[in-house]
Structures are given as structure tokens and as C-alpha cells.
Amino acid sequence: MTFDPMGMASAFLFLASLTLFLSPARGHGRAASDFDHGLDLLNDLLTDKPETLCQYVECINPVAEDACPEGTFFMEGIAQYGCCGACVEFRGLDEYCTGSIHPQYCGGYGLYSQSGTCSDPWKKLRDLRNSIDENLYPQDNVVRSSWCGYNIACGSNRKCAIDSNARGCVYIQRKYDEARQPGSGLYFDYRDDYRWRPTCSTEGFFAEKQCKGPLGEQRCVCVDPDGNRLYGDAFSYQEELYNTMNCKCSRRVWELQQAGEKSVTLHCAPNGNYEPLQCEDGWCYCIDPATATPYGSRLPEGVMDRLDCYNKTLVGAQYLRRCESEYHAHMELYDLMEFKGVQGPSTLLECDADGSYSGKQCEKGSCRCYDKYKNIIAGLAGSGCQCARDLWMNQQMNINIEISCQVDSGSYKSIQTRGQYAFCVDDDGVRAGPLVYQSAAGKLGCEAAKKCQNGSKQSNCDNACQDCSQEDYVKAN
Question: What is the pLDDT at residue 7?
């Protein structure tokens, strides 16, 4: 990034005016040393009120987050006295360091030794600015920090090393890799093939798309940064959905909801990708599902059929679908009544990110499972409706797969049997335990297998099938 002489000149003129105002007059002239106080004022502003200084700084060559080179992170408040954004490059393994990023400190930035709270929102920026090695900002807008990057810690020898305290996605990854080390004695193909390695973002959170389960039996699902399930999935036999899946739409819908958006009208495909046509606030545009990049013109919803991406079969004459149309109308009424000082009626209606009805709908204390068109497919919902929905989907696609749902519920039985085999499944019906013969079904420890997948104690992996002999495992014979 180039330095902004005009912007900084404005800042120094501002400081000079403060100096003239605050310094006592000495007749009609001033000693040159009187102006030295401007540096003290600048330092005070940088320390206590950087937001005041930033009003007089014009950022040169600003970049968007997605414009930073690979291996760098866009962060606000880094360049030009902390008033402008820059792409920050952190130290890697075995490199010299002065500190680390702590994911629980100030939203992700701060000295590793700091606590998980941040009473001073400017402190994280001051700490990070102090770690920047260079004061000159080159044209590519990249600055280098002396801190270690995400999920690696600055050790006592001042070198970056794997952070043994990292949890979540990175922790599961590390435990999986340790178990798969040759000669570890912690992983046996015939017993542990159900374990899967999560995909983590550079910051250490769960990536949007996770493919779980044994090879050949995988189901890819969309998740939030903590690994919680979002709308969007695909089995390996759904080749097009499976191979093109990126979950960018599902994650964006989740982000908007977390930001307080009451009615999100983005449309996601069954695999969590964007649908080609999107409409928001009465305006429609096209988006490339593969890259999540909008293109072309934005047109009023009334003439959305003039857009290249409009598909009459998929969209029809109205953009909003049944569930979201009902929900959107309700929220408009709610907002109107709230504006008039009246508490509006609440709703339990749940819509999926494609605008259709969610599987589980509740009314007057009773929850049932529905298809996308709000037809009942299970009398009671229990803890969820994934099993009932999968049965319904398989019927629509003429797929004959044996699935067992819990009695009076739409969720999966924890132990499934197919032919002479038995195995544990997770909430998505994915095999989440060893494949054994039905004679050993009573020995399966589904909770232990779940803890093993999440990187818990080795004893849980050993108890995924309690007291099982090698003959009990299908893949050992």
C-alpha cells in the first residue's frame, strides 16, 4: 500500500491546530520547540483515540477481503496509523515469533497469553499493529506480522509450533492424523474406517462443506463454523450435486440470520450452492453457483424473466416460494405492528434455504415431520426429521435403501441393520461406527464411536464395539 501524504498532511495540520490551541501564547511569536508537542498528541491519539485520527486519513489503494494474496488475511485497522485495512501475513512453523493469535481473544486477534474477553476493542488492533515488522506498505498491500498464524503458538523458544491447545476442527484433524500414523496402533482399517478427517478453514473453523463417513458411503453436508448442520447435502450417488457442492449459499444464509436478518430471500440448491437466479429487496440478478460470483445486470423482480439465468420451470412466475412467501408476509406484518408500538404475533414456521417447508414443523406444542410441500410424512417429529425426509426423498427418486427410523419419530435409529450387517449411524444416517455382523449388534457402542470421531480418549475408539473379537468385524474377514 502506498503512503497517503495528503491524508497524513491533513492529520498533521489537525494536530498542529490542536497544538496552537492547547499551547500558551508567547507574545506574537512561538519557539520551534513548542510544536514538538504535536508528536505527543499524535502518540496520545494513536494510544487512546485512534478513531479521531482516522477521520483525517484517506486510505490509498484499499482492497477487499477476497483480493488478498493466498496465505494472507485482510484485517481492518492495520495500515496507515491503524486507520486502513491491509493483507497480513503471519509467521509459519519454526519461524521466529513474538506472539500468537488466540481464537478466543477479541474475536480472533490478540496476544496468546491474553484472556478470552476484550473490554478494550482498540487493544486488539494496537497489539496487532505492534507486531507488524514493516512501516512501509508496498503496492500489493501486504504487511508481515511477527505473530504466529492461526492454530500455531509462539513457544518459549520464540518459534512457532503446533498449538496443542487448539480445539474444534483442528483438534479433530490432529487426533485423526496422529491415529493414522504408521505404527501408532491407534487405527485399524477393519474397525475405524468410519472415522473421517474434517476440512478446516485457515482460521481453524469447520469449512462450509464436510464429507463424512467411510469412502464409498459418504454424505457431504453443509455446516456452520462450529460444525453444526445447515441446509444442504448430497450422497456420493447423487453425482452432479455431490461433485459440484460448495455450500456457499447455505453459509451465507446462516451469516445473514446471525446478523439479525429476519427474512432472508436467497435461494439455495439442495446441495447448499446458490441457485442461478437470486432476488433481494425487489431486485433480481444472476450468480454463478460454482464461484458464488454475481454477473450481469440487476433488474426489478417484475421483469426477472429477462435475465439470462431465469428458468421458468425452476422459478415460475413468482420468485418467493410457498413457505418463505408465508413467512415473509408474517414478518412484514410483525415489523409494521412493532413500528406502531404493538407486539406482533410470533410464528413457529420454519423454512429451508430453498424457500420450501423445513422437515420439522411445530404447532401448539406438537411437532410433526413434513415434506417440502407441507404434507405430513411422520406423525411425531421427536428429535428431528432427517430419517423421515430421507425416506421421502428416496421414494421420489425411486431409490430402494433400507432405512429404520425411531418409533413415533422422524429421526434415525442409532443402530441400523441391512441384511446380515449392523452399524451405528449419526443424525444424517451416515455410518458412524464399525461395520459388524448382526450377531454383534448388541456390542456396538455408538456414543463411544461418536466421541472417538471427535478426538476423545483412545478408550472410546476401543469401545466402539465392546468386547468384540476380530471375527465380529465384517471388514476383518
Answer: 41
